[in-house]
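From the shared-data thread, chain only:
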Amino acid sequence: MFTLEITGTDLSIEQLWHAVQTPGVQARLSPQARQQMERSRQLVQRWIERHEPVYGVTTGFGRLATVRLSDDELVAAQYNLIRSHSVGAGEWLPAEIVRAMLLLRANTLARGYSGVRPEVVELLLELFNAGIVPAIPRQGSVGASGDLVQLSHLALVLIGEGWCLTESGLQPAGDVLRQHGLSPLLLQPKEGLALINGTQMATAYGALGVYRARLLGLSADIIAALSVDALRGTDRAYDARIHRLRPFPGQLRSAQRLWALLQGSQIRESHRTNDPRVQDPYSLRCIPQVHGASLDAIEYVWRVVQTELCSVNDNPIVDPESGEHLEGGNFHGQPLALALDFLAIACAELASISERRIDRLVSGSDDGLPPFLTPRPGVCSGLMLAQYTAASLVSENKVLCHPASVDSIPTSAGQEDHNSMASIAAQKAWQVIENLQTVLAIELLCAAQAIEFRRPLRSSPPLERVLELVRAHVPPVESDRPLFGDIERLRTLIGSGALLELALPQEAQ
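Structure, as tokens:
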């Protein structure tokens, strides 16, 4: 069993991914983080004793910040904040996103700049360790004071209210906590506000999404190489001499991968002479330029999300070094909103060029490939409708790529007068990534089927390993059958990273 130590300073996207996806991972608060948290908590207690006006501690919230609270209202205000802000709508967030939110909120509070007791972080981690999934509606965040609504639903479970998603369905949070031997959190001043001021929903989508996007981007190179060979394309367009003259990092690496993946292919050797074609269409010839640009964009988003993972996005910030409370706006989701809109665009382009390769594979225009990749055209439709599905998803992506980050709408009677819509950007990007994975699965299905018509010639050694893996999950399409299951199995295969392990050495990834 692996234990993840939460320090607030060094959680990585890779660690978060594996913690959320791997059964049995446990998380605990580091002793150093506990000490830092205790220091900042002492400051909060001092301000309360002095009756110092501190936003959200001794005052109301939002437009009500001018309202001073009496001593006997301080704790009640924290409970009421969570209850009043639990106004989400729509379907529940996926369990993996909620589990990531638990770790992310624990991590930012562990930095020790929020003024909460260590017990708050420990309960968040106990929920994660026990596999408890708070029921959180996905809609309602405008991404400025963070994801207030969703984090309120999460905090509601900590205080024994709200609901949890269980194998038996929706259950009251109080019952679920008791079943696991946990007691609800007894809030202290500042703690309700600290629990809900943050970007953890958008960051959870961003972190898990960009991890998937990187994996899919690398897988796209492998699948594209298979399509190139199936279409009897040339590897000349991937010659390093071309790409050194336009040295974008993603383009260079994509070209290197494509070149390496096609070396040793008998199919490639079979058309070196007496082939009247001078060059391939863009969807084959320009793979490094298109894939590479998307991969560079994904790396940019990765850096933004990694920065946010270990950032303090609370307000006010409790600074134990100076002894001051610092009112600011680190909760604003604009850095994430812009980056996640970019992530959606980058992934949509990977899907768009993939669909064009699918169309070429099934169109029957290439010499030697039958229409729709069926050995019995006419009586069988083969993979005709697989391209329809890919086209539908690519079209949907175009709508989803309208940027959320250019929108804003005022809230809190104009006090919060510019909002980022980062949560909407995050959820749109997640759906585009889902669609990309399906489109790549369809391309893999079609490319593998097309290779069947090139036999007995063999592709390159790494691509033949990929084909062997595909055939272990999906048989050739010899006559018409429902392809939904085939596509789903290949989706899962691509998402597992198995193609990378077979076809790309670690240094090429």
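The beta strands are 3-6, 26-29, 89-92, 133-134, 137-139, 163-166, 169-172, 317-319, 324-326.
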